[in-house]
Amino acid sequence: MAESAPQARGPGAVEARAGILKQYMCVICGFVYDEAAGLPDHEIPPGTRFEDLPLNWKCPECGAGKEDFELIEI
């Protein structure tokens, strides 16, 4: 029987998960920015990372700034 590859652990494991897209919620109105979906209606293509949004980007629902968004942890 062949051995299975070991699971990535330690500092390298964080790098291995770096490709995971995240979601951020506006703490003012509850709007969720999903990196996987982007906001095509606002010229933000799917796959756009939250940190790659312009510094002056605002919540499309209430106008709050990026500083009013928190990472949603599952």
Structural notes for this entry:
With 74 residues, the chain is mainly beta. The protein has a single domain, classed as Rubrerythrin, domain 2, CATH 2.20.28. Helices cover 8% and strands 14% of the residues. It has one helix and three strands. It has one helix at residues 11-16; strands at 23-26, 32-34, 69-71. The protein has a three-stranded antiparallel sheet with strand order 2-1-3, with no helix packed on it. β1 (23-26) and β2 (32-34) form a beta hairpin. The longest helix is centred in the first third of the chain and has 6 residues, at 11-16. It is globular.
In short:
This protein has one helix and three strands.
Defining traits:
globular, mainly beta, 3 strands, 74 residues, 1 helix, 3-stranded antiparallel sheet, Rubrerythrin, domain 2, disordered N terminus
User: What is the H/E string?
Assistant: HEEE
Net shape: globular
Q: Under the CATH scheme, which architecture would be assigned?
A: Single Sheet
Which fold name fills CATH's third level, the topology? Rubrerythrin, domain 2
Number of folding domains? 1
Largest sheet: 3 strands, antiparallel
Into which percentage range does the β-strand content fall?
5-15%
Number of continuous helical runs? 1
Using the coordinates above, name the CATH class.
Answer: Mainly Beta
